[in-house]
Design brief:
Length: 420
């Protein structure tokens, strides 16, 4: 139930997400932010007009925004097994639990880039009508892939230009607000080759034009240099992963600065998904989990993680902007761990903490065309808030498991206690 409320905190992120406003209060009316002011300057009748929540020594941020989720995948080392064997009823139950955990962790907006249509759209509808809790969802539904291509087991298989265009139309008809293309093979799928393209630039371009005609964004998974080049030529809005594997299995990366420069010129975003990899590395190091064997297509020349990070760093230094997406549902990428995106960008790419926090909120909201609705604590935006104990601007790992979460003015978690 939406209430007019005031949320007081020791630290409130300023509008630009560049520093803290000490001992401030956020005033919420009808699900939106009405104002932000020092707690000491609140009118004397505030408690009679609003429900006042004094959150204490916490850091209050906009709700996190995650650009890459697979709601029905298990986030376990055997995620592929369950994706192949679970029926839709089991997948729906897993998705409901996953979306609740995402919301309670402080992630109030999620873009799902690949789940079965029979799962994703009913779950979104149930969230929208208040039947179940969950974040604001932007759905692709099934990704579009070639026959036996990456994620064929929850994708729409389309091999020709006409089939691809028809698949785009079908997803939008179902309610998709983003289209996901598998431009190359992927590591999750034994029958796919991540070094090889699945669609040429002309086919991707046809999909882009159809998506734009229908008013939706289009993103593409790509793990190879050839795939990146095709996505850039086609004008894909967001490149997912953007790894530079050489087509030759005996070689490593094939980075091309000219392609990157064109990407910058065209304003294409990249979702590097390095938080997912950080969680995997920590599972191996801290919990003794056996590392996953390399996919057959990259086993002849396994590229060291630092080489991928170096390439991503060069891209960003060249001007490519990054979204924050965990690839929720893949092994170790728990739906409640979107905060690992910021951790990885700070610890592995050397970003300062405020830059990582902005990317996890305002920047990703902008990339998803939601910057006029969420992503900042600013009057007029939706009251999506997440309060974290500690100070993530000093210690980025404090951005974990929010103590209090507010979604469009509704308190769903308060001082560590789930209310949903």
């Amino acid at each position: 139930m939406v209430q007019n409320a005031v949320f007081k905190a020791a630290r409130v992120a300023d509008e630009d997400l560049s520093g803290w406003l000490p001992d401030h209060a956020v005033i919420v009316e009808d699900g939106c932010i009405k104002g932000v002011s020092p707690s000491s300057s609140l009118p004397s009748d505030t408690s009679s007009r609003y429900t006042v929540h004094d959150l204490g020594d916490v850091s209050l941020l906009p709700g996190l925004v995650d650009a890459h989720c697979h709601m029905h995948c298990s986030a376990t080392v055997d995620a592929l097994h369950w994706a192949l064997t679970d029926d839709n009823n089991r997948l729906i139950m897993r998705s409901v639990d996953a979306m609740r955990r995402a919301l309670l962790s402080g992630t109030t907006t999620v873009r799902d880039l690949g789940s079965r249509n029979e799962v994703a759209f009913p779950v979104k509808q149930a969230i929208d009508d208040g039947s179940i809790p969950g974040p604001r969802l932007i759905l692709a539904g099934t990704p579009i892939t070639i026959t036996a291509g990456h994620c064929w087991f929850f994708g729409t298989e389309a091999d020709t230009v006409d089939e691809v265009v028809k698949a785009v139309r079908h997803q939008v008809k179902l309610g998709a607000r983003v289209i996901k293309m598998m431009a190359t093979g992927g590591m999750f799928t034994p029958t796919a080759n991540p070094r090889r393209t699945q669609y040429d630039a002309a086919t991707l371009r046809a999909a882009v034009l159809e998506a734009e005609r229908l008013g939706v964004q289009i993103v593409a998974h790509t793990l190879s240099a050839d795939g990146i080049q095709n996505c850039v030529e086609a004008g894909i809005h967001h490149l997912i992963h953007a790894r530079w594997h050489h087509v030759d299995p005996a070689q490593g990366l094939d980075y091309d600065q000219a392609v990157v420069d064109r990407m910058v010129e065209q304003g294409q975003w990249v979702d590097p998904t390095i938080g997912h990899h950080l969680l995997g590395e920590e599972a191996v190091a801290q919990r003794g989990v056996a590392p996953a064997p390399p996919h057959w297509a990259v086993s002849k020349h396994v590229v060291a993680p630092q080489e991928h990070l170096d390439a991503l760093g060069r891209m960003h230094e060249s001007g490519v902007r990054f979204t924050m997406g965990l690839d929720m549902g893949m092994a170790h990428a728990d739906h409640g761990k979107s905060a690992a995106n910021a951790w990885a960008h700070h610890e592995q790419l050397g970003w300062d903490t405020w830059k990582a926090l902005r990317a996890s909120t305002a920047d990703t909201a902008e990339a998803l065309l939601l910057g006029d609705q969420v992503g900042r604590i600013r009057p007029g935006l939706k009251a999506d808030l997440a309060a974290f104990r500690g100070d993530p601007a000093k210690k980025i790992r404090d951005l974990d498991n929010a103590a209090t979460v507010v979604q469009e003015g509704v308190v769903v978690k308060l001082n560590g206690e789930a209310l949903i």
